[in-house]
Specification:
This is GrpE protein homolog. The protein is α+β, with helices and mostly antiparallel strands. It is about 65% helix and about 15% strand. The protein is built from three helices and six strands; from the N terminus they run αααββββββ. The strands form two sheets. Strands 1-4-5 form a three-stranded antiparallel beta sheet. The protein has a three-stranded mixed beta sheet with strand order 2-6-3, with no helix packed on it. Helix 2 packs antiparallel against helix 3. The radius of gyration is 53 Å and the shape is elongated. It starts with a helix and ends with a strand. About 5% of the residues have low confidence.
């Protein structure tokens, strides 16, 4: 009788507890399934994020590289434009350099011609010589005006300090009344075209005795 009662109690307890277990098991199964799904998705999301981060870094590097190339291209273009502009300006200023050199010989001849005429003979009593001399002087003055108009300036450095960029020394000699290192004699005047020496003056330089 006692064993029968024990079995009855166990069966009744089993019947009471079984519905509770039946009700709890779907929720537990859903939670476990979600946890398992989350654990499965985490590696996939991590791999995708890594791939996106890598692509972003590559794109940023490409943008940086292209920006540097663009800046260098702009700088090269600006340098080329500046050099081209300088070449154009120099061509305008010094394009007549060859013609000026040829005209310098004409100016030298006119200067020699006027200097060779005895001034005491240039009088109204000698009208032919006077007219010739006046014509030479007027021509020399006019050609110097043309030179000045086009930026050609005469260099007559008598008494100035010797400058190797503007003067060409033919000799060095002691000269009374001249400081050493100064121009004592000008054999041929020089010329500068827009500040650039076109022909150096031929000079003799004084030196210490």
């Amino acid at each position: 009788m006692a064993s029968f009662c024990a079995r009855a109690v166990r069966q009744s307890y089993s019947l009471v507890a079984k519905p509770a277990l039946s009700r709890a098991s779907p929720r537990l199964l859903c939670t476990a399934s979600q946890q398992k799904k989350d654990e499965t998705d985490k590696p996939e999301q991590s791999a995708a994020e890594s791939l996106l981060a890598e692509e972003k870094a590559q794109l940023e590097e490409q943008v940086k590289d292209m920006t540097e190339k663009y800046k260098r291209a702009l700088a090269d273009t600006e340098n080329l434009r500046t050099r081209s502009q300088k070449m154009i300006e120099d061509a305008k200023l010094y394009g007549i350099q060859g013609l000026c050199k040829d005209l310098l010989d004409v100016a030298d001849i006119l200067e020699k011609a006027t200097e060779s005429v005895p001034k005491e003979e240039v009088t109204s009593q000698n009208p032919h010589l006077k007219n010739l001399y006046d014509g030479l002087v007027m021509t020399e003055i006019q050609i110097q005006k043309v030179f000045t108009k086009h930026g050609l300036a005469k260099l007559n450095p008598d008494g100035q300090k010797f400058d190797p960029y503007e003067h060409e020394a033919l000799f060095h000699a002691p000269v009374e009344g001249k400081e050493p290192g100064t121009v004592a004699v000008v054999t041929k005047v020089g010329y500068k075209l827009h500040g650039r020496t076109l022909r150096p003056a031929l000079v003799g330089v004084a030196k210490a005795p």
